[in-house]
Every structure is written in structure tokens, then in C-alpha cells.
Give the backbone structure.
Amino acid sequence: MIISILDYGSGNIKSVSKAVEYAALNLGKSARVQVIADINKIKLSDKIILPGQGSFKQCADTLFKMTGAIDELNEFVIQKKKYIFGICVGMQLFSDYGYEDGGHKGLGWIEGEVKKINIIDSKLKLPHMGWNEIKIKNDHGLFKNLSNDKHFYFVHSYHFVASSEINVAASTLYQDEITAAVIKDNIFGTQFHPEKSQTNGIKILENFINW
Amino acid sequence: MLKKRIIPCLDVKNGRVVKGINFINLVDAGDPVEQASIYNKSGADEICFLDITASNENRDILLDTVKKTAECCFVPLTVGGGVRTVQDIRNLLLAGADKVSINTAAIKNPDLIKESALKFGSQCIVVAIDAKKTGDNKWTVFTHGGRESANLDVLEFAKLAQSSGAGEILLTSMDKDGTKSGYDIELTKTISENLTIPVIASGGVGTLEHIKDGIVLGGASAVLAASIFHFGKYSIKEVKEYLKSQSVSVRI
């Protein structure tokens, strides 16, 4: 199995690839984990991980400017229905539109918009940074074998507001209930960083490899 | 509910963990990769590396250490010390750091905060402030590992760092650092109450109660501690169990 992490110049790809390699090793699967910047390698992959750090606009800008990237991704995800996992801004990019930093359109795969978390309680800080528990809304195999506490590492100021609750796979509480994971058919994404979420994070990556 | 973070900090000099009192009198406390990997397994919420010598020849040792640590740690890793340029930040991120802490360079040139936050995202830019008490409810920013006064008010500078795009403030009390007499609560509280971004309390922790006070009285989102962990006085688990018993919300 070839699992490709798309490198479009967004932050710390290394920690993602290390964690996926570790998860594959745990499973005893002979998965090839590769970081790709060449979009022609998308179609040669079995699964894609779309990371993302920084602002929605900057990530979207870079991705949309990569010649052919959007077409290749649409073919992989929409036509071929192959599995993709978006992390943090990578997940937010699945939406129709993100308002951060002046705004940019997204990939439009999961209906919804990415908006700033509205904090009224002055004791709560932004970014929402650190470990928070998730509440699973869709008892999917991707959440298999997690520990009881379900803590994951978050760091973000914007959140995915999905048009349909059906696509919210998990939520977390930060003043209000906000999206922690989205799902639609072969498309999965988490607002939290599985690669930085210790054992629970590795489990989710294992489940994605097994998906 | 968001948990309060417990962050063991490794002060690294020439590739070894050291710990001093008031920034001097350094004592060897082990191999950083080994230490980090133990913390990773024992429940640390993040791990912090501060390269306290930060000379140029030391850079490669640090990058190599960061690389090795990132390979065995699946919690966020913050690295700081001697970061001067956007390229320095990039090199550390490429080596596997998740966040980079900037100190002297950010004070000399706040545009570096802006530039790097735009380029890499606020989430990975930590501004480290070394504060020294200079009057009633007044603290002054110091640079160069606490050796030079920057003649800047800590609160004013912290606000500037926030508006420039810092994602977090690592606030060290130089008066308290290494004394084991507790965090500077007034300092932590003043900065935390006046900022919207998280503040990490640092400098002075000696007991479990000090950690609780930093969070409950100081309003810190996270606490940093070095020697109490390195020399085995407390384990991270003990700290967290104590905090839980005191109704502080932590990840166990």
C-alpha cells in the first residue's frame, strides 16, 4: 500500500510521516509512506494525507496555484473514491470557503464554511491550544480502539462549521461544541493533530491505514 | 474541556541537558533525546527544548538533537534558543520542531514575529519573555539569556507580541528561576489576564503546590518545569494526579 503525504509547503510534514510510519509498523503492514510534492504521484497512491498548518488562505492559495493539483485531487477523491485524510487546515480545506486572513474558497467536498471560533468567555484563550476530549458522533471504524478518555491535541482559532450534522464525525467542547472531525464517504479529516496526540493519535492513523 | 498542559523543559547546552540557578551554575542532567523520550511515554503534554548556549557551532548539534527527538516523540515539541531569522525557524521546523520559541530576536525586531507568523502560522510561534521585577507590579524584559535589560515593560511587549501574531507567550520570571520558591504569581496573572493568547508560566517551581498556584492563581494555560522532573523529584504522573485531586483539569 502506498500512502502519500502531500507536501504543498505547509509546515511540519515530518512529524506526520513519522507518525504514519510508526502506525504502519504497529500494524505490521508493509505500507510505503512517502512525502510527495509531485502531483503526478497522487494517482499512483492508495491513500492520501493532506496536512496543513498556518492560515486557511495561505494553504489554499498554495494548493490552488500548484498546476494540476486540484484536478488530480478531485479525480482521486471524487471520481475514484479513494481514501483521503485531512489534518487541521488540511481538513478545513475540504469545505466550501474559509474566512481566515481575508478568505479563500476551499475544495468544496464537504458542505460548510470555516469561521473564527467565537469566544465570549474572556477566560478562554485563542488559539484553542492543547489537549481536549472528543465526543464521537459517528461510530465509525476510524475511531476504533481509542482509550476511554479520548484526548487529542488541538491548535486552531478557526473551526469547520458543517452545513449538515451528518458530516460531523466528532466534536469537542470549547465554550460551544465545535467540529473535531468530519466524514463523508471516503473523505475524513480531523481538526486535531493525530501525529501529536500520542497513543490515541497513532490509533486513528492505524485505523486510516486499515480503512 | 481543554486541559492544562504540563511541559517538561530541557535546557540544552552542547547537546546535554543542564539546569542552573538564576541562569548560571549549570549541572549536567543527561541526554536530551533519552529524557524527551521518557517524558513522551510518561504523559508530558508537550516537550520544550531550550538551547541555552545558542552559539552558531552549537546549531548543528541542536538540529540533530531535535531530529532524533522528533522521531521518538508524538507530542508537540517546542524548540528555542538563538533563533534569529525566518530561516532559523524554518530549519527547526524541518528538523521536526512543532513550535519555535523566539526571545532576543523578537525583542530587537518584532517584525520577525509578524513575518514568521504569516509564513508558518501563529500556532508555531512562541514568544519567550524573560521578566525581572523592577517595581510594584512592574516587570522589565531582559534579553541574551537574562544578561541585558531591553528597557521594555513586560506587559506592553507581551501585547505587542500578541498583536504581531504570536500564538503563545512563554513567560519566565528571572527572579524566580531555579530558586524552587514558586512561580511569580503576580507576573503570571498580570500577563495572562491582559492577553487573549495562552501564557505558559515558567521559572521557580519546586513543589506540586507551586504548579497548582501557577494555574489556579496565575491563570496560566500551561506550566513549564525543569529540575523537578529531571532529578526525579516528581514524575509527570504524580504532578497530574495531584492537580486532578485539586480539581485542576488535566490529561491523565
